[in-house]
């Protein structure tokens, strides 16, 4: 997710705002410290225009 965020020229704060979460929560998603709820996972796929398989590392 970090690479996707950089490729989309977003800061943690900007990405967090787009997902309606706090920057700390978004940062924890990126670092794998907390599980991403399904609704936010889908929103991340849409935000970065990637498939769920790609985000899960199942496809490149």
TrEMBL record:
Domain of life: Bacteria
PROSITE patterns: HTH_CROC1
Domain HTH cro/C1-type: 1-55
Pfam families linked: HTH_3 (PF01381)
InterPro entries recorded: Cro/C1-type_HTH (IPR001387), Lambda_DNA-bd_dom_sf (IPR010982)
Gene Ontology MF term list: DNA binding
UniProt protein name: Helix-turn-helix domain-containing protein
Taxonomic classification: Bacteria, Bacillati, Bacillota, Clostridia, Eubacteriales
